Amino acid sequence: MKLDNRKEHILDFIVRDYIATAQPVSSGRMALRRVLDSSSATLRNIMLELDEGGFLFQPHTSAGRAPTEKGYRYFIDNMIGKPKASSNFSEFSADALGSFVNDFAHDLGIFASAMITGEKNMRELAGFRDVLLEPEFREEDMLENFGRMVDEIDSVMGEYQKALIKEDNDYNVWIGRENIYPGARKGSTLVARISMPEENEMIFFAYGPTRMNYEKAIFKLKNLIDEI
What pTM does this model have? Predict the structure, then answer.
């Protein structure tokens, strides 16, 4: 389903604003920010249409709107570009890998892991504290599921790697209930396979709330692919 330009513009604003603030977005806030240069009433009507289409939901009766999993999926598939994970690294040190994973996790407030399989056999994990600062991780079941996922991270990454191979994809984002690993279904995962010399392969895995900054995450991943 392709949205018209006005609905896309409003969905884009709501997704970005909610990612930044973790607060539902009201029509009044959008009117103050001069979104579409429209009145609160006009914006409210468009938001209602997006709500009815399953792209937004209202967390509380008096609140504004927040993106649904369907809203995030539309944002990722239609509003931001995807990297092409086909790099061919000549050298990639453990220090460089660790630096990237730490920077990625800290900058985005999410958990990240990278593993190079084959002769090099390197792995880095980062972001434990960063992700736990996100408000979504105040929920006890989120904490328990996250802890279990970290304990099982090798097998978890392996399952997502198999899914990418089966789909013949180098890269994907799983949002909420799309996730393969049951314990990740209240958050989102970003996974990429990156070819390396001598039949080595890097698997990059990131996990955070569904409210993660997808655009920034994809941009940073693209920089890794393009520049290292």
Answer: 0.88
Half-sphere exposure of 31 (CA within 13 A, CB side): 14
For the domain made up of 5-79, give the CATH fold.
Arc Repressor Mutant, subunit A (1.10.10)
Enumerate the CATH 3.30.450.40 domain ranges in the chain, comma separated: 94-227
Which CATH number among 3.90.550.10, 3.40.50.2300, 3.30.70.890, 3.30.450.40 corresponds to the domain 94-227?
A: 3.30.450.40
- Tens digit of pLDDT per residue, the chain (228 long)? 799 999 999 999 999 999 999 999 999 999 988 888 888 899 999 999 999 999 999 988 777 999 999 999 999 999 987 666 554 444 556 677 888 899 999 999 999 999 987 656 788 999 999 999 999 999 999 999 999 999 999 999 999 999 999 999 888 999 999 999 999 999 999 999 887 766 678 899 999 999 999 999 998 888 777 655
In contact, 114 and 101? CB cutoff 8 Å: yes
Closest CA to 14 of 58, 62, 61, 52: 58
